[in-house]
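FAQ

Q: What does a record look like?
A: Structure on top, sequence underneath. For example:
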């Protein structure tokens, strides 16, 4: 089992409830120095309608000893929710110091009180481990408890020391000023504490504009440690590349290069293909002449949003085909053998065959490219999972393949990986930072980003696709259960594999169709109902600024502008839950908000009650 308490929650399948409302004038969690004192918590459990409800009853009267022990377990899980909301991560906790448990019990059950509080203690042991999750304890019977709850537990924890770069002070988390967020209440995270900004429940996926992904604590710690030392960046780049190449199972003759993201990876790779190791041309880019090898071939049916990253280098893009008729072999062969022969820098290929099978096959592209000596570069920025994609393209013989480091790999947002043939790698090193007078000099990959990315990839490769997909399905089950009888929703369905517009396409997603007044939406399946994807009505650079022009976008707008803030994408007929980055507790909160907003839209006539037999 993982040593990270947040990961253990996932492995133990503990669903955290929302942070409980306070019943008086006090703090739920009070941090003083390295001490973290948690007020008395009671048990909240998931009810049949998918919401969390307070458990009540007196032991020996309404509840049995085993039911009370289960309540103590729920109390522990509720306390973990408050701790994570306050601290940001349970990995900040060093150990459990003390527990004080109260049990609302009949006198005849006095001897069972320690057994009941064991329910709380067992959860702490399972999450933090037997060495750090077991502390001193008192278990006391009570004549009554507030709201007639069966168990109330308070606890004290010791926090791990905060690592900070030299010369910087340790952030205060319990003081008078910094502890107040934008609403004047308790601080829940650094963005609220410093800027008054809410955090977001991300139901969209690893969008750059939402911060990418969550880094594992090991990667964050490695970055802080890396910031405290100076190092030869050229050598560090090579050493990190060796480690990444091994993790990604690169064949002989391949290596890895670390960049500041997949878009930067495109620029670095294309610059290397144009200039190679020629110092005169390296220093001249992006100024190219008609005699330079500067033409980059792309399938005209592919996504063109990243063309500027390529053109930054001075490249000239030649699009072959259209969205209706993608690039095909005869068209590619004609271009490669045209008067431009010898001027093609590379072919940048987005392997849509993995998603929809319509595009020209990679094997056909490689065969023609090899015949004319033109490198093939695959843009696979968001095509992980599965983990096997990290070696899928190098094993097939592409010259380079580019991945984002800040998406599923969970590295720093400003990181990326290029896996490439060694001769191309050497040209990449010469065409970018830390070398001066290079077109890619601004794309600096810091020592912290390099170390953080290597650590994140090592952590990611310790997991498995089976574990990840099991979690995705639990998230979708949680959402489905909560939304199964909500007015305004006409259909809920899981789509195991999405079309090529949504990456990674292999992650299962929940499509939720709405029931608007007037004519119904068409019965087009999810693969034809792209709606907000790749369209002007959803700004992928700012996905929370959704214009409420129809019921799906009105719902997304409401979710983005309420509390908690929920980011969700739309289709022509509804919205989509992407489980990629959702914790189970976040899924419960997001589905609760969606249910509430749908009910409000029904009340004002934006939606109408649905025929529940279709769900």
């Amino acid at each position: 089992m993982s040593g990270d308490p947040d990961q253990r929650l996932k492995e133990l399948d503990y669903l955290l409830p929302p942070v409980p409302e306070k019943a008086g004038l006090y703090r739920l969690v009070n941090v003083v120095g390295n001490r973290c004192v948690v007020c008395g918590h009671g048990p909240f459990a998931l009810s049949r309608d998918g919401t969390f409800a307070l458990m009540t009853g007196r032991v020996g009267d309404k509840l049995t000893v085993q039911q009370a022990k289960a309540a103590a377990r729920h109390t522990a899980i509720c306390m973990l929710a408050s701790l994570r909301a306050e601290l940001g991560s349970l990995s900040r906790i060093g150990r459990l110091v003390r527990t004080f448990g109260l049990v609302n019990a009949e006198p005849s059950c006095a001897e069972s009180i320690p057994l009941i509080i064991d329910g709380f203690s067992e959860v702490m042991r399972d999450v933090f481990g037997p060495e750090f999750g077991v502390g001193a304890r008192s278990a006391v019977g009570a004549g009554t408890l507030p709201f007639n709850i069966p168990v109330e537990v308070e606890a004290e924890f010791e926090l791990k020391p905060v690592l900070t770069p030299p010369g910087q002070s340790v952030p205060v988390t319990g003081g008078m000023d910094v502890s107040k967020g934008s609403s004047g209440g308790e601080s829940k995270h650094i963005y609220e504490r410093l800027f008054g900004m809410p955090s977001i429940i991300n139901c969209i996926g690893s969008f750059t504009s939402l911060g990418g992904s969550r880094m594992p604590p090991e990667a964050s710690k490695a970055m802080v440690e890396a910031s405290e030392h100076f190092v030869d960046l050229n050598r560090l780049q090579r050493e990190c590349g060796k480690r990444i190449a091994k993790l990604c199972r690169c064949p002989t003759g391949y290596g890895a290069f670390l960049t500041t993201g997949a878009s930067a990876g495109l620029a670095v790779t294309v610059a290397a293909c144009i200039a190679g190791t020629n110092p005169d041309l390296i220093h001249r880019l992006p100024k190219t002449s008609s005699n330079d090898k500067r033409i980059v071939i792309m399938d005209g049916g592919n996504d063109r949003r990243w063309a500027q990253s390529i053109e930054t280098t001075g490249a000239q893009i030649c699009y072959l085909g259209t969205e209706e008729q993608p690039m095909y072999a005869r068209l590619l062969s004609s271009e490669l053998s045209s008067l431009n022969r010898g001027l093609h820098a590379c072919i940048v290929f987005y392997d849509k065959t993995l998603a929809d099978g319509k595009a020209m096959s990679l094997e056909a592209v490689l065969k023609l490219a090899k015949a004319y000596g033109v490198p093939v570069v695959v843009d696979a920025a968001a095509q992980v999972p599965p983990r096997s994609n990290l070696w899928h393209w190098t094993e097939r013989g592409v010259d380079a393949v580019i991945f984002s480091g800040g998406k599923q790999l969970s590295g720093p947002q400003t990181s990326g990986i290029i896996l490439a043939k060694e001769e191309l790698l050497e040209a990449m090193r010469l065409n970018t930072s830390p070398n001066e007078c290079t077109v890619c000099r601004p794309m600096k990959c810091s020592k912290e980003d390099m170390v953080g990315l290597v650590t994140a990839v090592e952590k990611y490769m310790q997991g498995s696709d089976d574990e990840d997909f099991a979690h995705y399905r639990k998230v979708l089950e949680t959402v489905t259960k909560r939304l199964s009888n909500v007015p305004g929703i006409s259909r809920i369905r899981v789509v195991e594999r999405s079309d090529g517009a949504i990456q990674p396409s292999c992650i299962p997603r929940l499509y939720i169709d709405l029931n608007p007044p007037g004519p119904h939406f068409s019965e087009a399946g999810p693969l034809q109902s792209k709606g907000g994807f790749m369209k002007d009505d959803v700004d992928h650079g700012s996905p929370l600024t959704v214009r409420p022009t129809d019921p799906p976008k009105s719902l997304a707008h409401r979710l983005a502008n309420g509390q908690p803030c929920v980011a969700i994408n739309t289709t022509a007929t509804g919205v989509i839950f992407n489980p990629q980055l959702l914790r189970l507790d976040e899924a419960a909160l997001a589905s609760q908000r969606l249910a509430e907003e749908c009910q409000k839209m029904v009340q004002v006539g934006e939606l109408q009650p649905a025929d529940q037999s279709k769900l």
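Q: Is there anything notable about this one?
A: DSSP finds 17 helices and 20 strands in the chain.
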